[in-house]
Design goal:
Shape: globular
Radius of gyration: 27 Å
Largest sheet: 8 strands, antiparallel
Structural class: alpha+beta
Helix content: 40-55%
Oligomer: single chain
């Protein structure tokens, strides 16, 4: 299926710059930032070939706040400023998106009482005054809502949740009102039932652990599955069993639906990553027979045991070179840097002596304990806690050694490290594949300041007060084996581990641990990026740390070579 991009004749760079200046990139929204959500909504509307003013409104639709999103980027008294940036028609649509109660519009749409040429009276949520709104404009507001939902709706870790059924019914209800009908749900003609969506969600999740999607992909399902990811998962299963035709057919449908939506339904991967998976499947389906059989066999071997989540699938494809390396979030535009990062970088002008490592990052909330529920990895770890514990215990004590930090301790404190400040310990990760997959799928620190390791503290042992090196990370502990009598104190507050549950704390505060029990305490320790850091900031920090590592290694090699030549010359008679 070919798509034609909508050309927007006026530049939206001005509103983008103003949104960044006003802090939209730092404003949390769902699993990302408000700015990322606004940009994503705009991209969806462009793919749906919506008029210029609707696309522009997509980039600004939440700036005045809405009935579901309270923060204001623009005050309602600044409407003229916004209109100068996006145009008067787009600004009015943006204002109405915030000023009207959307549930009232939806009720009218479902009742089929909206006519394009008629006008309807609403109460302005901001002023309590009356507003007359044309039926065509109400249709545009519904389309804006559809794009808003497509861009943001997901579960806490990005997994699909229930929303397609009501959105498909809403889309169908305004088909005769919209000036340009979105291409989703077969041009807004097909409606997915609530029971059908529940069946789809259950089949899709089961598909990751070896279940079949045929019941929902087949014609007996009634309405064809309207999103691409289930088709791609089914295409992957077809590749694993060596069915070239099914691989190709399902990958093409999945790829076309990704183009139609221009947003991921399963947001555990980005849209680009899903498109890469579709491209891989299509390329594999066109390989010569011998090569196709080789790829199929390679995919089939780990399929049943390892493909438990999209992130694991993508990592496997990444490891065999079938997809590109993880995309880094772009800054807003060329030359623009997050304000905190810009302040951090200026410190390099005077990073001498003990400040050379630049371990303190400005503007991050400083508190000893963090709510574990804030971190998506916690849900993943706790959901798999039994399997992780079994994996760690089955690996035994091979590779463990005394913890190397120069911290006062009593008794035995031993560790085995999976990720060691920029280095992956392949032999350890191979013994702990399930644990490794979760670490690699989340915002964990695996560069210069980050560790992931299993810690064993023998009975009767303790570790004195000490501090971590930087405020850019927080530390997550998952209880693996926790006897009575164990505890951890951070900044004077004591807590206890619970087997199968996580604690998260800022280890740049003074902290100590002890095991007064009669058996060994075992915890999995993973460093996470501070929750205040945005994806863009993390990408920049990781890039700087990669550069520092590469520069250091190059310099050490250069010095070693020169030392070798000097010694050789001194020894020559």
């Amino acid at each position: 299926m070919s798509r034609v991009s909508l050309a927007v004749p006026v530049s939206l760079d001005g509103i983008a710059r103003e949104l960044v200046r006003r802090g939209a990139r730092e404003e949390p929204h769902g699993r990302s930032s408000l700015f990322a959500h606004l940009q994503g909504t705009r991209a969806v509307l462009e793919a749906w070939l919506q008029p210029q003013h609707v696309v522009a409104a997509g980039l600004a639709h939440s700036i005045y706040s809405t009935d579901a999103f309270e923060p204001q980027i623009f005050a309602t008294g600044e409407r003229a400023v916004a209109a100068a940036l996006i145009g008067e028609r787009a600004e009015r649509l943006t204002y109405l998106f915030g000023a009207l109660e959307r549930e009232v519009i939806f009720a009218m749409a479902f009742a089929r009482t909206i006519e394009r040429e008629s006008e309807y009276w609403f109460e302005d949520r901001f002023t309590s005054e009356g507003l007359w709104v044309a039926g065509e404009t109400l249709g545009e507001l519904v389309i804006l809502h559809l794009a808003n939902e497509a861009e943001q709706r997901s579960g806490s870790e990005g997994q699909p949740e229930f929303w397609l059924a009501p959105v498909s019914a809403l889309a169908a209800s305004i088909r005769d009102v919209a000036a340009r009908v979105p291409p989703i749900f077969d041009q807004c003609r097909a409606v997915l039932s609530a029971a059908g969506e529940c069946k789809l969600l259950a089949a899709y999740e089961a598909g990751w652990t070896g279940g079949s999607l045929d019941d929902v992909l087949g014609p007996q399902f009634g309405t064809r599955v309207p999103v691409g990811e289930p088709w791609l998962l089914a295409g992957f299963a077809a590749l694993a069993r060596g069915d070239r035709d099914e691989t190709r057919a399902r990958a093409r449908i999945g790829q076309d639906l990704l183009l139609v939506w221009n947003a991921a339904w399963d947001k555990r991967l980005t849209l680009r990553q899903w498109r890469e998976i579709a491209g891989f499947l299509l390329e594999a389906s066109e390989l010569p027979a011998e090569r196709f059989d080789h790829v199929s066999a390679r995919i089939a071997a780990p399929n049943a045991a390892r493909l438990v989540r999209p992130e694991v699938l993508y990592k496997m494809l990444e490891n065999i070179g079938a997809v590109r390396a993880r995309e880094l979030p772009a800054t807003v535009m060329a030359g623009a840097l997050p304000s905190r990062f810009a302040a951090y970088v200026t410190g390099f002008a005077n990073n001498r002596g003990g400040r050379a490592l630049m371990t303190s990052y400005p503007g991050l909330a400083s508190k000893p304990w963090h709510d574990p529920a804030v971190f998506p990895i916690v849900a993943a770890l706790e959901a798999d806690a039994e399997a992780i514990a079994a994996e760690i215990l089955a690996a035994g004590t091979a590779g463990f050694h005394a913890e190397s930090e120069s911290v006062v301790r009593h008794g035995a404190w031993k560790v085995v490290i999976l990720f060691e400040r920029g280095r992956k310990r392949e032999e350890v990760c191979a013994r702990l594949p399930r644990t490794t997959a979760i670490i690699e799928a989340h915002r964990t620190v695996r560069s210069l300041a980050g560790l992931a390791y299993v810690s064993r503290l023998a009975a009767g042992s303790s570790v004195a007060l000490h501090m971590g090196p930087t405020n850019m990370r927080v530390r997550c502990h998952l209880g693996v084996a926790v006897p009575p009598g164990c505890g951890i104190e951070v900044d004077g507050e004591t807590r206890e581990w619970t087997q199968g549950r996580c604690l998260v704390f800022d280890d740049s505060f003074r902290h100590r641990v002890w095991n007064a029990g009669s058996s060994e305490r075992i915890v999995l320790i993973i460093d996470l990026w501070h929750p205040d850091l945005t994806d863009a900031e993390i990408a920049l920090l990781e890039g700087m740390q990669r550069y520092g590592t590469a520069a250091g290694e190059s310099l050490m090699q250069y010095w070693a070579k020169n030392d070798e030549l000097r010694i050789a010359q001194m020894e020559t008679p």
